[in-house]
């Protein structure tokens, strides 16, 4: 292949990868192509909590889980991964507690 063909393929691949990335997590604009699995785990846990009967009885826990997830995302973008993972873990824990209310 010619050099131009490789360059064109690289540009198309880059656009494809960037276009498939989520636009935001927990209301915080996405600042990377990829994120740790904890982001998706936390999103799924909060969604389950919102759909559970516990959301009616413990809405404050669901709201707190969303708040912590948002803080976790902002903290991750600020390059404090350890703190971000702790916040996301706490958000998942609160979401699970809300499910069980």
Q: What does this protein structure show overall?
A:
With about 100 residues, this protein is mostly helical. The protein has one domain (about 5-100). Helices cover about 75% and strands about 5% of the residues. It contains five helices and two strands; from the N terminus they run αββαααα. The protein has a two-stranded antiparallel sheet with strand order 1-2. Strand 1 (about 25) and strand 2 form a beta hairpin. Helix 2 runs antiparallel to helix 4 (about 60-75). The longest helix has 20 residues, at about 80-100. The radius of gyration is 18 Å and the shape is elongated.
Largest sheet: 2 strands, antiparallel
Global morphology: elongated
| Arithmetic mean pLDDT | 85
**Helix/strand/pairing category:** mainly alpha
Strand order of the largest sheet: 1-2
Number of strands: 2
Q: How much strand?
A: under 5%
Q: Gap between N and C termini, in Å?
A: 61 Å
Low-pLDDT segments, ≥5 res: none
Secondary-structure element string:
HEEHHHH
Helix fraction by DSSP (H/I, runs of at least 4): over 70%
- What is the domain total for the residues? 1
Please tell me how large the radius of gyration is.
Answer: 18 Å
Count of DSSP-assigned helices: 5
């Amino acid at each position: 292949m010619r050099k131009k063909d490789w360059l064109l393929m690289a540009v198309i691949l880059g656009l494809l990868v960037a276009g498939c990335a989520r636009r935001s997590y927990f209301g915080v604009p996405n600042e990377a192509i990829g994120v740790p699995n904890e982001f998706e785990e936390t999103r799924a846990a909060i969604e389950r909590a919102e759909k559970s009967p516990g959301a009616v009885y413990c809405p404050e826990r669901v709201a707190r889980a969303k708040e912590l997830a948002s803080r976790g995302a902002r903290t991750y973008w600020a390059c404090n991964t350890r703190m971000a993972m702790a916040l996301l873990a706490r958000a998942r824990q609160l979401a699970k507690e809300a499910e069980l209310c």
